[in-house]
Amino acid sequence: MSHWIDTHCHLDAPEFAHDIDAVRADARVRGVALCVLPAVAADHFDGARALAHRLGDAYALGIHPLFVPQAGDDDLQRLDDALTRWRDDPCLVAVGAIGLDFFVPALCEPAMRARQEHFFTAQLKIARRHGLPVLLHTRRSVDAVLKGLRRIEVPGGIAHAFNGSEQQAGHFIERGFMLGFGGASTFDRAQQLRHLAAWVPADRLVLETDAPDMPPHWLYRTAQQRTQEGLPQGRNTPAELPRIAEAIAALRGLPLAALRDQAQANACQAMPSLAALLS
């Protein structure tokens, strides 16, 4: 029997501090057997690892581009040291989340863009040295991320929350990467993304929530609703993964079970250590 795997969710985020056990239990009842918790900063490494062990999940370690401005010059060494220290930990499955973000204006300033690229390149080299796949953040930066991957080959991984073109998707696929799809695929207006979710080859698609972020349409509140009606933004959780998968299965014209089977196999191919955790 196959299971749902949430390949990217931040259960160590503050939004879950008060009810994380209930959140994870709810997801498990809905068939989400494994969640991958990507750390986003060096100060989060210990916490992400401890939480993954407590919840029976997996984790990845990396310095996210949104956290590069706060990162210290020694944080890359801290990452290398942590991967060495925990190299025999079966719950450690990848380096991530790493990548580039050219959406946030402050991160596009020349000095910060250069610092992002320095951290990304260094983390690719670290992943290669440790023989680990990578979880990639590619917001408005797909071509630049691909350029880095051409220079520094790593053992595959996932382009998280993919929202590029077919051609860009093809370049990731040629390099052995999976493409991650989640709640954004449930919005009718996201026509290009929904086209991609239907188009991507079956053996290249993985599922994710990016919880507590990237809520599906049934949890989303517009800025007007939040401001004028006082409605909170819906918190995404791993329990939403099966319903998100229903929307993607419908786009692909697949039975839900077939998508679940394929997505599990793809996740285990992208992060081989997951297979032992499932068993």
Automatic annotation (TrEMBL):
Transmembrane helix recorded as keyword: no
Keywords: Hydrolase, Metal-binding
Binding site for a divalent metal cation 1: H8, H10, D210
Gene3D superfamilies attached to this UniProt entry: Metal-dependent hydrolases
Pfam (any one): TatD_DNase
UniProt key word RNA-binding: no
Entry superkingdom: Bacteria
Chain residues that bind a divalent metal cation 2: H137, H160
Molecular-function annotations in GO: hydrolase activity, acting on ester bonds; metal ion binding
Family of the protein in this entry: Belongs to the metallo-dependent hydrolases superfamily. TatD-type hydrolase family.
PANTHER family: D-AMINOACYL-TRNA DEACYLASE
Protein name stated in the entry: Putative metal-dependent hydrolase YjjV
Organism: Paracidovorax wautersii
Gene behind this protein: yjjV
